[in-house]
Design a protein that fits this description.
The chain has 84 residues and is an alpha+beta fold. It has a three-stranded mixed beta sheet. The chain is elongated. The mean pLDDT is 85.
Length: 84
């Protein structure tokens, strides 16, 4: 397992366990998608760094998570995301 895959597994569990977020699909990377059928949470790796206090191969990661609405109307998209 990697830091990213562990984070994605965790976020998928959080989405399923949180009322109002069960229909949010976690996308493993930022990429172009055609038409969204529902809300998406895109995970982007910003950086990895070695942890000096940990054994070799242990790293800390920085990620950006972006929640995207399927609505093309900005006001409706913001209302949709605010309701979650």
């Amino acid at each position: 397992m990697t830091i990213r895959s562990d984070l994605i597994t965790y976020l998928q569990g959080v989405m399923l366990a949180t009322e109002g977020l069960q229909d949010v699909k976690v996308i493993k990377s930022v990429r172009s998608v055609d038409e969204l059928s529902g809300p998406r949470l895109c995970v982007k790796v910003d950086s990895y760094e070695k942890l000096p206090q940990a054994p070799l191969r242990k790293r800390s990661g920085t990620f950006t998570c972006t929640l995207v609405s399927p609505h093309s109307d900005l006001d409706r998209a913001e209302e949709d995301l605010d309701a979650r």
